[in-house]
Amino acid sequence: MSSGTTYHVDPRCPDVQAFIGRLKQDLNAREMSGELKRIIAPAKFEEFASQHEPTCIRCKAYVGPRASHDNRSAIWGGAAVGLIVGLVAGFFRESYWQTVLYAVGIGAALGLGAEVLARVGSLLRRK
Ligand SMILES: [Zn+2]
């Protein structure tokens, strides 16, 4: 297991979508800055996902792009995590899809970085 995000919830799971809806309503009802909401939203989502995933048949069965063992899996995994975070964080920004795109790009870049490091690491071990 790699470090970082440990949950694998299905973004299309009705419970996941219901949670995102509730989270959005909840945060919008509060008196706080958009900046704070953008920090809190992904953290709340992770907290929900870590509790929801073991109890949901659909999300348990959902393995996500990271389950694939080809070399691009880290990039796709990063992009998928970025997409989920971006979808949540985007609610609190005016440019919703721009935020989502940035998050996917950042996630993919982090995945690429992890993949490069893993490959360099395995090359060094082989020698
Ligand atoms: Zn679920």
Number of domains: 1
- The overall pLDDT average reads 79
- Structural class comes to mainly alpha
Helicity, as a percent range: 55-70%
Write the element-wise H/E pattern from the N-terminal end onward: HHHHH
Alpha carbon gyration radius: 16 Å
Largest sheet: none
Which ligands does the model contain, each kind named once?
A: zinc ion
Shape: globular
Strand content: under 5%
Number of strands: 0
Distance between the termini: 24 Å
Describe the structure.
This protein has 127 residues and is mainly alpha-helical. It has one domain. 69% of the residues lie in helices and 0% in strands. The chain is built from five helices and no strands. Helix 1 runs antiparallel to helix 2. The longest helix has 31 residues, at 96-126. The chain is globular and about 55 Å long. The two termini are 24 Å apart. The model has no long low-confidence stretch (mean pLDDT 79). The protein binds zinc ion. Zinc ion is lined by residues 9-10, 13, 15-16, 52, 56, 58-59.
